[in-house]
Amino acid sequence: MTGQIHQLLSVTFALGAVQLISGCSFKNCIADPYSNGTIYKCISRKEENLAAIVNDVPTSVINLSISVTYVTHIRNYSFVHLPNLQYLRIDHNNLSTIDPSAFENLHQLQSLNLSFNYISELHSSLFKDLHNLTFLSLTNNKLKQLPEGIFSTTLNLNTLIMRQNHLTNFSGIAESVSHLMNLKVLDLCFNSLTSLNHSNVSLPESLTTLYICRNNLSTLGCKNSFLRFINLLDLSYNSRLPAMAFQDVDLRHINYLRLRSTDVRVVEFLNISNINAGHVDFSGTGLKNDNLLMELCRLLKRKVKWIKNLHLSDNGIENLTNYALYDCPKITGHLDLSRNKLKTTSCLNFLKEQTHIKSFNAEHNHLTSLQSCKTQNNFKNLEEASYRYNRILSVNAFAFQHMPNIQRLQLNINTIAFLHRKALKGLKRLVTLRLDNNLLTDLFNETFEDNFKLQVLNLRNNRISVIFNGTFLRLKNLSILDLGGNKITYFQPSGLDGLKNLSKLYLDGNNLKQIDTSIYHAFQDTLTVLDLQSNQIHFLTDNNLSPFMNLSKLSDLKLDGQRPYGFTVLPHNFFRGLYSLKSLYLTNNNIYHLAPDVFDDLTSLRFLTLDRCCVGVAHLEPGVFKNLRNLKKLTIESMGIQNFSKDVFGNLTQLQSLQLNRNVMQSIHVDALQSLPKLLYLDIRNIPLSYTCQNSLLQNWTKNNPDVQVVYLYDLMCQHDAKFKFYNFDTKVCYIDLGEYLFFSTAVVIFLFTVTPLLYVKLYWTMKYSYYVFRSWFSNQWRRLREEEENCKYGAFISYNSSDEQWVMNHLLPNLEENGSSFKLCLHHRDFELGRDIVDNIVSAVYSSRKSICVVSRNFLQSEWCSLEIQLASYRLFDEHRDVLLLVFLEPIFERQLSSYHRMRKVMLKKTYLQWPDPDCTDPMQAQELFWNQLRRAMRTGSKLETEENAEIEGCVTAEMNHSSFCCGERVIQYL
Hints:
alpha/beta; Leucine-rich repeat, LRR (right-handed beta-alpha superhelix); 17-stranded parallel sheet; about 15% strand; disordered N terminus
């Protein structure tokens, strides 16, 4: 007892721990979202340990299914924490062993299904606590016998099913159930019983239905009164059971006896049995010819005057003459001739006097046609006829004239290619007509003209391509029309006229390329269901009017899987007018874009499925579901959705079930889930959620929302490492208090964003120069440049724009390097080192030359590289106090043009500069000669440039505040 208590406490503790962690989410089970936590299904799981499954569900569970798992063993007290359980299924598993106290504490259990397992033995006390059990199924196991007293406490058992086992001892079974005063059904089919031999026990008087089919019975071997309370007895497929086995057995209460495929000769059986002959099913009893049938009929007529049902199926009957059933008692109900070899029914001439028959069944025969019966006997009481599963190719005119009051006619699953225009003539009371799964190609306006009471017409899976005008004109009472699975390409303008009360229209699987609004006018106020799945409807533009504008009562619309490429475009006003629509199906359509107002009119929608409706990655526009405030179930699987946000899903305030699985979002915003106050069921399987701080709030939300079930939460694995699961990845680092650090970092960032633009404007070139100088110093280049400064490699570095290259080559180079001059110039196109960074080349050139000559023009001022060169040279001028910079202006430059070149203006305010003589000067040759002399002299000056005022020229100089110009007869240089 101590061990049992310890085990019970362990189970209870484990359950509490799981519920504390998971809230309303489960590892192996799914709760029905509409059952208030009372129905759970644990199906197709790989779990072998039953406790891991059972401990997954709360104590409130009433209905629990554990199916298709690897469970092999049910241990003691497995369900002790589920005292409210009423329905338990543990079927289709690998179950072989059940401990004696496995169902302990299940006092409320009413139904237990243990079928399709490998159970070979049951303990006698297994069901001791199941006092309220009414249904028990042990179908398809390996039981050979029942232990004594196994049902001693299940006094309320009503139905016991033990078919498909290896039971051999009927006496033990009878003894086990003899005290069950509420037992009504006992099913022992497909076992190995050889007789009904029993000891001094009786079957309970409450037992009315006993199935012992497909055993090895060769005798009944029971007391005469043993079956006296049985109403339904099935002894079929006991091939060795003879008629003499029923000698003196009391069968007076039998209402239905099956003897199919036994060795019972029915005539002999009826002669020795006290059964009511009208309660015997003669199917499969070898009555294959007229003589045997006539003999049976005469015997029946001697015993009873009328018979309700006559079952003659599966007797191998090939032909029935007019007198085969002539001597039978009056048949007032059903005649079953199915599963024989009949090639014709001859307008039911073989029934002659059987005019009271109400139902006739000729299914599964070899009928090839239905002939005209215009002048034959009139079966006015016949209400139902079935010719399904035959080989009927044609139905001739007036084929059913002999059954004018028939209400249900089934001609489906044949090969009917010809239906005469008057084949259904005279059937004015016909309510249901099934012509589906045939080869019909055409319907005419005369086909249904007499069937004005028809309510259900099924023409599915034929080869109809066009619905002609007036086809259904007389069918004003038709409520269901099924034209699915045909080849319909269009309806003629009046093709659906007359259908004033049509409620359900099925057009799926046809070749419709558009939805013609004009054909719905007859039933626009009555239609509730419209099925247009798998047609060829598509749109190329968004400029289409709604074809459903006037279908004000439509509640169910199916548009799935348009062939071959889907809708392509879904017009934004496509659903305009569908204010009563409750369910909408749009799966498997290649929609490129869902307009934000496409569902605006669907204010009553309860169910919407968009599985695989879109092409590639779907981008749902904010507000696309804004008017779906009554939506309860939304399925958007495999849409490629990247973002689950409140802007899209925030208005679904009544949503209870949301299926998001197989999408591509890496995170789910918790605020979007919090905006769904009625959510009960969330499926996010097969979504590549990132197990980072980005989803830490989502993890916390799944744990702290007991009303929302996240399907198989424990199975959500990390995409990169299967060892980590979503429900327990480490989120501690996500909740560290970083307020102080964030404040200072934010302050620094704001300061940098404020100061950086100012520094950029004021100190851009200073910083850039400093950067390159530092880089040169770092590469040990600074020392080399310093040394070369004392023994310079070049006399001058020439900085110029490429547009001024002609002046440099034609004037500057000949006058400074040639014509007896000793200056060596550094020109970028000639002396820069190949493969070296251009800025490094400029720095090297500036510091390897005694002077830097800037040839200034308007093009020069527009060049970024020229600007960099003059800036570097001016830095050397100011920072080293060396007279290294000479400015030569090729054209007049005004001060406003130098406003952005403040470094150049600063140089001009402190230093003398030269300007190339104006060609309009009085003596340009003399002015140019004076220009070159002054330039050579400036290049020879020392480190300090002093004021030159004694230089006399023959020309003239005019000076202005912002530039100098050479003219004859004045001074050469003007100081500014």
